[in-house]
Design brief:
single chain, alpha/beta, Rossmann fold, seven-stranded mixed β-sheet, 4 helices, 27% strand
Length: 178
Amino acid sequence: MSDSLDARVFETIAADLPATDRASAQIYREFLAPHRNCLLLLEGELGAGKTAFVHGLGPTLGIDANINSPTFNLLNVYENPRRAPEARDLYHYDLYRLMDPGELDDLDFVERWSESPADDQPARLHAIEWWQRAGDQIPRGVPRFRLTLDILEPEPGPAPEDLQESQEPRRLRLYRLP
């Protein structure tokens, strides 16, 4: 999926983790919330902040759980405690360890991504890290958004003493996929 085929709908620079959390909330409210079932495809190098972005979605969704990387089990499901249609469950995938897109069939991921929740059930947001490893298994009949996270080069000169590595600024770009 290339930038030329995707429509960029949002861009910001997040200077730190609180700014990333604010961007998560804004992106959810403006672009993801209108859809009962949608895919958020997260893209960025190791350490770019993909899991931190998903973590920031928790409070906006009303999910109190500690959202962390599902690297070793590929999927963490965070159910919204409000089991109502206006609530939303978060399905957080990390496909980094996936060796073959065919493995997704055994895990029922493609089916899970494609099916809409029943009208009396919470909506679903599927946040997928390392989605490129799914090959052509990402369904097209579901609203899809691609979020790129890029670590920005530090400003020239000495860094502030209280700046931690995890606080490096990131550029976040959201694209609506066809």
